[in-house]
């Protein structure tokens, strides 16, 4: 038994923060941002009540509406986020409430930009165990809540958004294949929010020194991301007995266009097979991969091999292969066609 993606959903706020607006905040240029990152604009949640739980619930409701999913049939929600609504009280609890998932458990996981991939592996294992039939895996982050808009090295990178997928059982080989996930805590100091946790609780000093925003050693993270993603992709291809020629699409974490291109070059997979939407969303952390799946869902065909890879704070990284299955809407259409053909035969 495999866990197959049968529905996808997504949501981004309506407010667009483009590069020209960024140049009014910090000393940079629109051309420099686009050349260094590939980002032209990012979506920002301007309303205070639009928390991470709001973004996630909107993505899930988009999924349920478009694929006629009954919220009461969902048994579990795994929410990947690095920007929870509260330090104490799972954000998934509010998402379940807002989305009408009254029969589902909900839990948060935080693996930064690799969070959705980690959550997908957890959800797949639950489905494969046979104990659960319908699990939603979501990635959502309100990165604007932890971005320092006086720091030109980080404020140009991040945006807000959410994406979600529904996992169901498949017995014909489609779905999540073997994954490889990795963690190296030695990279923690290179990409983190230094204060606000148990190690450095909030105080006047941490507030004055702006320690509640993202701090990043950009050059080191860039090099580590390219090397780690390239290596783990080769490992997961070998684990799944696939060659690069058999990969139909690559869905990488959208952190920086130069990272994505470097990984593509290292894998010797044509860039025409790589899905990219960083130019309009920026880095939405846990949401980048599900937003890509949502944006490009119509390009993915039954039986195609999709390679997903991520890298994030922690350091956390990994890769998985998906054999794309039949989406719920397509199942319904096929059912109607079969019923119509059966009726013709009977007549």
From TrEMBL:
<dbReference type="GO" id="GO:0033818">
    <property type="term" value="F:beta-ketoacyl-acyl-carrier-protein synthase III activity"/>
</dbReference>
<comment type="pathway">
    <text>Lipid metabolism; fatty acid biosynthesis.</text>
</comment>
<feature type="domain" description="Beta-ketoacyl-[acyl-carrier-protein] synthase III C-terminal">
    <location>
        <begin position="237"/>
        <end position="324"/>
    </location>
</feature>
<keyword id="KW-0808">Transferase</keyword>
<keyword id="KW-0275">Fatty acid biosynthesis</keyword>
<feature type="active site">
    <location>
        <position position="283"/>
    </location>
</feature>
<dbReference type="Pfam" id="PF08545">
    <property type="entry name" value="ACP_syn_III"/>
</dbReference>
<feature type="active site">
    <location>
        <position position="253"/>
    </location>
</feature>
<feature type="region of interest" description="ACP-binding">
    <location>
        <begin position="254"/>
        <end position="258"/>
    </location>
</feature>
<comment type="subunit">
    <text>Homodimer.</text>
</comment>
<comment type="similarity">
    <text>Belongs to the thiolase-like superfamily. FabH family.</text>
</comment>
<dbReference type="Pfam" id="PF08541">
    <property type="entry name" value="ACP_syn_III_C"/>
</dbReference>
<keyword id="KW-0444">Lipid biosynthesis</keyword>
<dbReference type="InterPro" id="IPR013747">
    <property type="entry name" value="ACP_syn_III_C"/>
</dbReference>
<comment type="function">
    <text>Catalyzes the condensation reaction of fatty acid synthesis by the addition to an acyl acceptor of two carbons from malonyl-ACP. Catalyzes the first condensation reaction which initiates fatty acid synthesis and may therefore play a role in governing the total rate of fatty acid production. Possesses both acetoacetyl-ACP synthase and acetyl transacylase activities. Its substrate specificity determines the biosynthesis of branched-chain and/or straight-chain of fatty acids.</text>
</comment>
<keyword id="KW-0443">Lipid metabolism</keyword>
<feature type="active site">
    <location>
        <position position="113"/>
    </location>
</feature>
<feature type="domain" description="Beta-ketoacyl-[acyl-carrier-protein] synthase III N-terminal">
    <location>
        <begin position="107"/>
        <end position="185"/>
    </location>
</feature>
<keyword id="KW-0511">Multifunctional enzyme</keyword>
<keyword id="KW-0276">Fatty acid metabolism</keyword>
<dbReference type="InterPro" id="IPR004655">
    <property type="entry name" value="FabH"/>
</dbReference>
<dbReference type="InterPro" id="IPR013751">
    <property type="entry name" value="ACP_syn_III_N"/>
</dbReference>
<protein>
    <recommendedName>
        <fullName>Beta-ketoacyl-[acyl-carrier-protein] synthase III</fullName>
        <ecNumber>2.3.1.180</ecNumber>
    </recommendedName>
</protein>
<keyword id="KW-0012">Acyltransferase</keyword>
<dbReference type="InterPro" id="IPR016039">
    <property type="entry name" value="Thiolase-like"/>
</dbReference>
<keyword id="KW-0963">Cytoplasm</keyword>
């Amino acid at each position: 038994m495999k866990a197959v993606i049968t529905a996808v959903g997504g949501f981004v706020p309506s407010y667009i923060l483009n590069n020209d607006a960024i140049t009014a905040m910090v000393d940079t240029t629109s051309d420099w941002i686009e050349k260094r990152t590939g980002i032209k604009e990012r979506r920002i949640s301007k309303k205070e009540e639009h928390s991470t739980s709001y973004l996630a619930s909107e993505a899930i409701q988009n999924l349920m509406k478009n694929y006629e999913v009954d919220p009461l049939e969902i048994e579990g929600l795994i929410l990947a986020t690095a920007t929870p609504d509260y330090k104490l009280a799972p954000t998934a609890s509010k998402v379940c409430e807002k989305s009408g998932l009254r029969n589902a458990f909900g839990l948060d996981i935080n693996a930064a930009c690799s969070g959705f991939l980690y959550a997908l592996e957890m959800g797949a294992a639950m489905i494969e165990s046979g104990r659960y039939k319908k699990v939603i895996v979501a990635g959502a982050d309100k990165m604007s809540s932890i971005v320092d808009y006086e720091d030109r090295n980080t404020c140009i990178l991040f945006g807000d958004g959410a994406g979600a997928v529904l996992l169901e059982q498949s017995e014909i080989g489609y779905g999540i294949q073997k994954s490889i996930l990795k963690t190296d805590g030695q990279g923690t100091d290179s990409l983190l929010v230094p204060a606000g946790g148990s190690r450095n609780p909030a105080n006047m000093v941490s507030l004055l020194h702006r320690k509640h925003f993202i701090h990043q050693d950009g050059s080191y993270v860039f090099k580590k991301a390219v090397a780690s993603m390239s290596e783990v992709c080769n490992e997961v291809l070998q684990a799944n007995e696939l060659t690069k020629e058999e990969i139909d699409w690559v869905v990488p974490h959208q952190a920086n266009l130069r990272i994505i291109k470097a990984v593509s070059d290292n894998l010797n997979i044509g860039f025409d097979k790589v899905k990219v939407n960083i130019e309009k969303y920026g880095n939405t952390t846990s949401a980048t991969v599900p937003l890509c799946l949502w944006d490009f869902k119509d390009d993915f065909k039954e039986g195609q091999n999709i390679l997903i890879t991520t890298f994030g704070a922690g350091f956390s990284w990994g890769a998985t292969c998906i054999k794309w299955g039949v989406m719920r809407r397509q199942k319904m259409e096929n059912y109607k066609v079969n019923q119509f053909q059966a009726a013709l035969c009977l007549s």
